[in-house]
From TrEMBL:
Enzyme class: transferase
Pathways involved: Carbohydrate metabolism; hexose metabolism; Carbohydrate degradation; glycolysis; D-glyceraldehyde 3-phosphate and glycerone phosphate from D-glucose: step 1/4
This protein's name: Phosphotransferase
A single GO BP: glucose metabolic process
Keyword field: ATP-binding, Glycolysis, Kinase, Nucleotide-binding, Transferase
Organism: Rhizodiscina lignyota
One GO MF term: glucokinase activity
Annotated ranges, domain Hexokinase N-terminal: 23-217
Transferase listed as a keyword: yes
Length: 492
């Protein structure tokens, strides 16, 4: 069994002393020891508990009102709507009698940029138009029943009910006035009603919760859903009795409740995370300084910017010779590099790093010497490795809090799926945290590729919500009579 991910340092024999010294400094800055990982994950557990308490903390630990894992025998046809920053996806998912199996048809629609700063009426109207197009295309002339809809609305929202949600703040480039602080469901349903669509919003969910439920549908060992992409987050099932901030609702203490951690905000107080001067700059110059401390160290949105800041700092250091006499204007643009730039560097298979050289030339108009390329390669490895190792701390913390000694974690997101060695480095970090030695032949906690959380997960949560309403367990459900009419034929 390969215990460590591959690392190519290349030949450092011809690297000048000034650059070698900087490589050593960067290794010290960005490396996270086994002892530090353990300390971070232990502190993380306390912060998760604080988020569930009446006092709360930096990590919101949002109750989702998704109150069961699927048993694999869910049946019926459900719509799923996934509203992303670039595309809108509409799915029709039929859960079959076969355990853990489903049929899916789906269509994608472009989210026009002007919608993101338009009016609320334009936004909900456009989304309703897309749903209408989908239904007319796939069900022309049919007399449809009320179709239950699971809506993946992956923007921070407060939910007192599973089929309602108050938007806390827009993200992903949206800035539509008059929506923040409001329940997003009534205007959305008004747009559906205006078009006479046979659709009832049954569950408003976050993509992380959907990832958890979709993955558990096909894998009974699945206990955590996680996103490692532009941002970072995780969801898991908590016992209602372990959520003090819901004590006033007198819920069955043994009943499960999916918690959307929103743990990108971990350590906003800067108590434990090993921040570098570059992390401090990223936070200070971000739109919301002092927020999302954890996310800013590990998420895809920030990896390229970390890399850029380090290179600029080295270029401006009088004791270091790097990119001498070259035009640095392209590198001086904030966020001109993303995580894919680092991925490409780490994937360069050639000993002379010719692909990395071409990348710098085309993207940044910079010509690199072989020693400069070696430094850039090592820097990309360090930033990517740190992100993967720190990412494992959130997963480890949930496992420690819940007492999971063995489980599967369903993970999605561009960094998890595309960044080289991210999975292997995260697995090694879990070994370090839990002390699994070579005698452990198979890792007890495994992070693996997730099922379709924003599509299948949304449909499943809609199915579970309907099932719960029919059973009379109405905690966190509004408009129950309307929900119970789902799957009944539409009146003529």
């Amino acid at each position: 069994m390969v215990r460590k991910p591959p690392s190519r340092k290349g030949s450092m024999a011809d690297v000048p002393k000034d650059l070698l010294a900087q490589i050593e400094r960067l290794e010290e800055l960005f490396s996270v020891s086994k002892e530090k990982l353990i300390a971070i994950s232990d502190h993380f557990v306390k912060e998760l508990e604080k988020g569930l308490s009446k006092e709360g903390g930096s990590i919101p630990m949002n109750p989702t009102w998704c109150m069961a894992f699927p048993d694999g025998h869910e049946e019926g046809t459900f719509l799923a709507l996934d509203m992303g920053g670039t595309n809108l996806r509409v799915c029709e998912i039929t859960l079959t009698e076969e355990k853990g199996e489903f049929d899916i048809i789906q269509s994608k629609y472009k989210m026009p940029e002007e919608l993101k700063t338009g009016t609320a009426e334009e936004l909900w109207g456009y989304i309703a138009d897309c749903l209408q197009q989908f239904i007319e295309y796939h069900h022309e002339g049919e007399d449809l029943p009320q179709l239950p809809l699971g809506f993946t609305f992956s923007y921070p929202a407060t939910q007192e009910y599973i089929n309602h949600g108050i938007l806390q703040r827009w993200t992903k480039g949206f800035d539509i006035a008059g929506v923040e602080g409001q329940d997003v469901v009534p205007p959305f349903e008004a747009a559906l009603a205006e078009r006479g669509l046979p659709i009832k919003l049954t569950a408003l969910i976050n993509d992380t919760t959907g990832t958890l439920i979709a993955s558990a549908y096909t894998d009974t060992e699945m206990k955590i859903g996680a996103i490692f992409g532009t941002g970072c987050n995780a969801a898991y099932m908590e016992n209602c009795g372990s959520i003090p901030k819901l004590a006033h609702m007198n819920l069955n203490p043994d009943h499960p409740m999916a918690i959307n951690c929103e743990y990108g905000a971990f350590d906003n107080e800067h108590v434990i995370l090993p921040r570098t001067p570059y992390d401090v700059i990223i936070d200070k110059e971000s739109p919301r300084p002092g927020q999302q401390a954890f996310e800013k160290m590990i998420a895809g949105l920030y990896l390229g910017e970390l890399f850029r800041l380090v290179l600029l700092d080295l270029h401006q250091n009088p004791d270091v010779e790097i990119f001498q006499g070259q035009d640095m204007s392209k590198l001086q643009r904030p966020y001109c590099l993303d995580a894919s730039f680092l991925s490409a560097i780490e994937e360069d298979p050639f000993e002379n790093l010719s692909e990395t050289s071409d990348l710098f030339h085309h993207k940044l108009n910079l010509s690199c010497t072989k020693p400069e390329l070696e430094l850039c390669r090592r820097l990309a490895e360090l930033i990517g490795t740190r992100a993967a190792r720190l990412s494992a701390c959130g997963i480890a913390a949930i496992c420690k809090k819940k007492g999971y000694t063995a489980c599967h974690v369903g993970a999605d997101g561009s960094v998890f799926n595309k960044y080289p060695h991210f999975k292997a480095r995260g697995a090694q970090a879990l070994r370090d945290i839990f002390g699994w030695g070579k005698e452990v032949k198979k890792d007890p906690i495994v992070i693996m590729a997730a099922e379709d959380g924003s599509g299948v997960g949304a449909a499943l949560i809609a199915a579970l919500t309907l099932k719960r309403a029919k059973e009379g367990n109405l905690a966190g459900i509004r408009d129950v009579d309307a929900l119970l009419n789902c799957h009944k034929p539409m009146p003529n």
